[in-house]
Amino acid sequence: MGKLTFGQKIFFSILSVAFLCVMLISGPSLMNTAKHFMQIASDQARTDSLMLATMVEPALVFEREDMAQGILEILQQSPQVISATVYALNPLDGSLNTFANYGDAAAVPEVELVTSSTTHIARVGGHLVAVTPVMSSGEIIGYIRLVASLATINQHFQQTLLYVGIAGGVALLVAGYLAVASRRTIVRPIKDLNAVSRLVAETKDYGKRAKVESEDEVGDLIMSFNSMLDVLQEYDRARWEKEQEILQLNQDLERKVNERTMELQQSMTVLSDTVENLRATQGKLVEQEKMASLGSLVAGVAHEINTPIGVGITASSHLSQSFRELSEKFESGRLTKRDFAEAMGEMKETVQMISKNLERSAALVKSFKMVAVDQSSDDVRPFDVKEYFDSVLMSLNPKLKRTRHRVRLEVPDDLTIVSSPGALSQIITNLVMNSLLHGFEDMESGEIIMRVQRDADGLVFDYFDNGKGIAESIRQRIFDPFVTTARSKGGSGLGTHILYNLVTQVLSGTVVLLNDTAQGVHFRIRIPLTAPGETDNVATAGVG
User: What is the β-pairing status of strands 406-410 and 447-455?
Assistant: First the structure.
């Protein structure tokens, strides 16, 4: 079914309401009429059966069948009665015997005779069957079975139904006429209004107007529509004037844009040069920060080496003096066995002292050399993680031994990776120096924990300190360049930025600042066990 138009909706709505009203009025009326006719038929059948029961009582008492048959003949005056049967009750066995009969008893099937003292009426098809007991001296002596036709009742009901149908049809015709008239009165002006609106929409001619044919709500709607067109016409005229102004402004603006574009291009050239200079300056600052860290390492190691070398020089001078004294006693013949033994024991201790201090210096130089070379290079090689951590901490020992701060290292044995040791050394150095300079500021005794473990994703390096932590104002920007809380003390703000670049770019890992400690900081660094592109070195590294 297609979509209904507004006029069709009005037409079918009015017809539907009229039909519903007719059904609501005629339906209950027909039901009451049918019920009334049926009640009349039932009362008539009950009355006839009671009358016959009273009349045939003497005939049953005196067993006069002819008398009973004559009484039944009276029913010829009642055309609705089809048959009537008188039954005599045998007092000995309670059986019923047909005593007299009128009409066609076989027209209605036999119904059970209700042995009661009241009249029983049942509807069988298009008939009413009334069974009434015949009483004598308060006892039942027989029954009257009366069958009446409902044809007359049905005929009256059909006539009533016809009258109601005619009245309903007339009502629907009147409703249809009203629906058509309403449709013409309402829909035609709306169609004209729709045609004008479409024409205005297609031609953009706001001078069109819809015709007002009535002074009702539809007329008010059309007048409102025409008023809207008046406003739109005024707006359209103002719009056209504004468009002309905008066109002129666009021409002026295009000229100004060309002038500003040339100025902007010149500014962009200057800005590009400035950005390049800033990038170069940032690179230099980052390199200076790295070299400053390495210079601080050199100064600390140099100071640390001075002590064993100084002890070695003093011991060497003492050894030379002891040797000259022993040589003079030998040449003069004053050398005794006791003097010789004492001199030999003293020189042995001196040599051991020199050897021990030289070995210590050599270890410091070796550790410094390895760390310094690694920090100045991004070469990738296999190395033992625990051994390398020990070497880096040994190079930082001159900075640590001046304080009461403690470093606890938790690294498993036999853990070898293929990566850039120089980047890892700079990471450890930056973290430790940040803790010493910032975290443990105004603290006498702090603790640093470096925990390394291996998981399915690679190497996990957790760095903790129990210092004063990082301010909430810069936690989200901690890895940005030039972010520092110690700028007044000479801080550059590049330490954690270098750390972030080393982890993400050189080691191909990730670094985050976690907020899971009540005091201090917790950095978590994840790096692969094998640097990208170094798969061939895994067998050589023996990653365990």
Answer: parallel
Backbone angles phi, psi at 133, to 5 degrees: -75, 145
Domain boundaries, the chain: 6-173, 377-541
Q: Quick one: 189 exposed, middle or buried, by C-beta within 10 A (0-12, 13-18, 19+)?
A: buried
Query: pLDDT (tens digit, 9 = 90+) per residue, 289-345?
Result: 555 555 555 555 565 566 667 666 776 777 787 778 878 888 888 878 887 888 787
Say how far apart CA 520 and CA 435 lie, in whole Å: 9
DSSP-derived 3-state class of residue 454: strand
In single-letter form, the type of residue at position 21 comes to: C
Question: Can you identify the CATH homologous superfamily of domain 377-541?
Answer: Histidine kinase-like ATPase, C-terminal domain (3.30.565.10)
- CATH annotation of 6-173: 3.30.450.20
pTM given for the model:
0.39
Collapsed DSSP state (helix, strand, coil) of residue 89: strand
Using one digit for the tens of pLDDT, what is the confidence trace for 514-529?
988 888 999 999 999 9
**What is the C-alpha separation between 48 and 145, in angstroms, rounded?**
10
Edge-to-edge strands, sheet with 447-455: 406-410, 447-455, 458-465, 521-527, 510-513
- The pLDDT of residue 140 is 85
Integer Cα distance of 231 and 211 in angstroms: 17
pLDDT score for 509: 94
* 3-state secondary structure at position 382: strand
What percent helix, strand, coil does the chain show, rounded to 5?
60, 15, 20
Closest CA to 448 of 480, 511, 491, 404: 404
Domains 6-173 and 377-541 fall in the same CATH topology? no
DSSP string covering 13-64: HHHHHHHHHHHHHHHHHHHHHHHHHHHHHHHHHHHHHHHHHHHSHHHHHTT-
Extract the residue ranges of the chain whose pLDDT is less than 70.
1-11, 105-116, 182-187, 206, 213-218, 278-279, 281-308, 310-312, 315, 356-357, 359-378, 484-494, 534-544
Q: State how far the Cα of 141 lies from the Cα of 137, in Å rounded to an integer.
A: 9
Beta bridge partners of 465: 448, 521
Q: Is the C-alpha dihedral spanning 72, 78, 79, 85 positive or negative?
A: negative
